[in-house]
Amino acid sequence: MITLGNKQTLTVIRKTEFGVYLADTLDPNRTKEEEVLLPRKEVPSDIDIMDPIEVFIYKDSKDRWIATTKTPLVMLGKTATLKVKDINNVGAFLDWGLDKDLLLPYKEQKGTLNVGDEVSVSVYLDKSKRICATMWISDEEKKQSIYENNARKLLNKLKKCDGFLPLNDKSDPEKIRELTGFSKNEFKKSVGNLYKQRLIEIEENGIKLK
Q: What pTM was computed for the model?
């Protein structure tokens, strides 16, 4: 079953001039609702029919389900701190790393927002099955947001260090703080977060990007 708001591995079932169509079933009797388009600009040059590919599913500006190989800054049911890119009569629009910005409806806002503000939000599906953001998040979700932001900072640190840091859960706390600016607890939680997302590998002498 193809689901909105998360990453999943689907199979290429056919190619068109617009891109490739993906499905999670090879049943020839599947409906059009069981297929989703990966636009041509995002199709890997070496991909072929029956190949698997990991994608994120969301809705485009015309409210059509669409696939992307990009990983958004936040997914359904998760929290993150995002920047306000635009504001109109519908609400605020947040930069979450995809072509179409994430809607933060007025009713889901706290206080007055301005372009450039950074806000902590959680992602949910509204009654129309649109992916939206809300600032009304629980204390537990706020804690999770903090850990995910720490994880993003660690990921950026890895990229700046050629994809490797000589640190693990047995490293000295002072060395961890010296190289990352994190406490040991923050570091361990961030590593766990990135590992679950399959963004890093944990080795005996450190961590590295996949």
A: 0.70
What is the distance between the alpha carbons of residues 179 and 88, in angstroms, rounded to a whole number? 42
| Angle between helix 184-196 and helix 173-180 axes, rounded to 10 deg | 70
Q: How far apart are CA 190 and CA 155, in angstroms?
A: 9
pLDDT single digits (tens) 70-92: 999 999 988 888 999 999 999 99
Where does the chain have alpha helices with state H? 139-160, 173-180, 184-196
* Helix %, strand %, coil % of the chain (to 5): 25, 35, 40
Nearest to 47, CA basis, from 17, 11, 73 = 11
SS3 175: helix
CA distances, 64 to each of 83, 185, 208 (Å):
25, 42, 37
* DSSP conformational letter for 108: G
